[in-house]
Amino acid sequence: MAQSKPRKAVTMIEARKQARLLAAEFAERQQKLLESAEHFLIVQEETDQELADILARIERLNTEAEAARQRVRDRQAQIVRRMSELGAREHEISTRLGLERSDIRRLMAHPGGQTRTPARAGTRPTKRSRIEAAQPDDGALFPTPEQPWPVDDTKA
Hints:
The chain is an all-alpha fold. The chain contains four helices and no strands. It has helices at 8-85, 90-97, 101-109, 127-134.
C-alpha cells in the first residue's frame, strides 16, 4: 500500500505550532535584547554622571593647586624682595637660593612681592640705613629677661 500523505489541515496545524514556538523564542530574545539595551543605557548614564563628578572634582583641585602655586610665588617674591632690601644683589640672591638670575628678576617683578610702602617704592636702602637697621637700638630685638625672683642684696 502506498503511504498516505498527511492531510493539509494537520500540516497547517503543525506549521502554526512551529511558527508560534519560533515567534515565542523570537519575542523572548527580543525582550532580552531590550532589557540588555536598557541596562546598557542605565550604566552609560551612571558612568557619565560619575565622570562629570570626577571632572568637577579635578577642576576644583586644579583651582586649589593654582591658588597654592600663586601663594607660594607671592611668598617667594616677598622673601626675594626682602633679601634685596637687605642689600643683597641679584647674583648673591640667586647663588643663595640656587635659582637663575632671570628667576630672581621675575620674582622681584612679581606683584605679590611688593613689600615696600608706596612712599618708599622708588628708593633703595643705603648702606648706612642697612647697618642702622641691623643694629639693635634699644634692645627690643633681644630683650633681657627679668629676674623671676627678688635679688638678695643683704649679703654683699
